[in-house]
Design goal:
Layout (H helix, E strand, L loop, with lengths): L1 E5 L6 H13 L13 E5 L3 H10 L3 E3 L2 E6 L14 H10 L2 E8 L14 H31 L4 H18 L11 H8 L9 E7 L1 H6 L4 H13 L2 E5 L1 H8 L3 H10 L6 H12 L2 E7 L3 E8 L4 H8 L1 H5 L1 E8 H5 L4 H6 L4 E3 L9 E7 L2
Parallel strand pairs: 1-4, 1-5, 3-9, 5-6, 6-7
Antiparallel strand pairs: 2-4, 8-9, 10-11, 10-12
Helix pairs in contact: 1-9, 4-5
Bound molecules: guanosine-5'-diphosphate.
Guanosine-5'-diphosphate (GDP) binds next to α1 and α9.
Length: 364
Amino acid sequence: MEIGIVGLPNVGKSTLFNAITRAGAECANYPFCTIEPNVGVVPVPDERLDFLAKMENPEKITPAVIKFVDIAGLVRGASKGEGLGNKFLSHIREVDAIAHVVRCFEDPNVVHVDGKVDPVRDIETINLELIFADMETVEKRIDRTKKQAKSGEKQYLEELALLERIKEDLEKGIPVRAMELKEEEIQKVKQYFLLTSKPVIYVANISEEDLLSKKEGELLKKVKEYALKEGAEVIPVCAKIEAELAELEGEEKKELLGEYGLEESGLDRLIRASYRLLGLITFFTAGPKEVRAWTIKEGTKAPQAAGKIHSDFERGFIRAEVISFEDLEKCKSQNEAKEKGLIRIEGKDYIMKDGDVVYFRFNV
Ligand code: GDP
């Protein structure tokens, strides 16, 4: 699961991405930490993991992680091959969701590619490029389906009608994710790999002054209004401060956060929001060797969740012994939870819940 960071030049993408890679470097014992320069893997902050680690005092603590990919190079005209053009668009095709960074800070030393800071225009510029690219994909598909539809087969006629509808909406400037589609149509549309069908979060890069004053600036307000129409979330961050925060740990980090009156960093909020956007949840395994957070898709059943740990666990799945984090939190130890009868036995049809602490029983 990957989130692609996009945005026009000079909006603060690299600054934010640097904060991401530094935050990732902190969890150096994580196996995925060494990857290409444009990929950053960060731990997902989770107080529940910290609690379980205190309870078990394990040899190793392993957080869930999320992967960000820095997709630089989008400029006006990319869909027509300007800048890195198509290469850029193919990178977007590969990610599962988009974090779209927009500039909401004024700074005379940082030029804006279009002369003036205007985040809504910036969002529209990029969204339009993605819409153009999708239109091209859809038009090609229409040509092909038209030929197939000559046979008169219902399946092709229906597909053609759907494609025509999507094209009309794209022409109106509506991204696929905001279109009114039925469940089966959504499934169908997935096969077209359209760029504007990917879920998006807008990351509003605000100024230090706005961060300090806590007042919602005009530019941020406009981004929020825009995002609301799409049902998208907006995460305000100040990339410059995030870069500083990522250098710090523990008390020092808390101190700097305190100076800005913040509980947690914008990056942590972005990580959490991205996790939600991807429809991901966490379950835990907790023992003296390792306390670990595992990532699964919402709706995953117990055997498949067990398969995340090891394929043998899925193949030989017998049952899962499950306790919700909330129940375990009230106990001093897993033994106490057992004595109180709080641990449930669940079978192969059990749908995992966020925060489940699990012990899988399996045949080898
Ligand atoms: P990118 O082209 O989108 O990757 O943008 P960069 O991260 O390289 O940032 C462009 C310029 O804006 C750099 O000079 C940054 O130092 C500056 N910048 C980034 N974020 C902020 C911010 O939050 N406040 C201010 N004042 N400058 C920023």
